[in-house]
Amino acid sequence: MESWILIGTFNNILKNRGVIEYMNKEQEINDYSCPHKVNYIAKDLGLNPVGISTKSDKKYMIYDDKGHVKHFGQMYYQDWTKTRDRSKLNAFMYRNRKWYKAPKYSPAYLSAHLLWNPDY
Q: Which of 11, 46, 59, 119 is most buried when burial is the number of CB atoms within 10 A of its CB?
C-alpha cells in the first residue's frame, strides 16, 4: 500500500512539473513524424540537435547558433519523414517553395529541410 502512495505522489510531482505531458507528447509525435530521422537529417546538414518542442502546437525545437530556441513543425500533421506520400510532398513543395531558400534556422527553413526534404 505504501509503494502505491509513493508512486501516486511521484506521478503528481512529475505532472506538476510538466514531465508527464512531455513524455506523452514524445510518444504522440511518433504518430505524425519520425524524430530519429529528423535528428539524422539535422546532423547531416550541419545543424544543431533537434528536441521535442515545449510548445503544445509544435513538434520540434532547435537552438540556433546564437542560443535562441526555434520551434517548428505543426503538431497533429504528418510530414514526409512519416508518410512518404509523394503527392503530399509535391503539394507541400509547391505551396511552400520559398521556404527552401529561407534563412538558416528559421522555422520555414527547418520545416522545409528537416521535415519535407525529398533527399532523405
A: 59
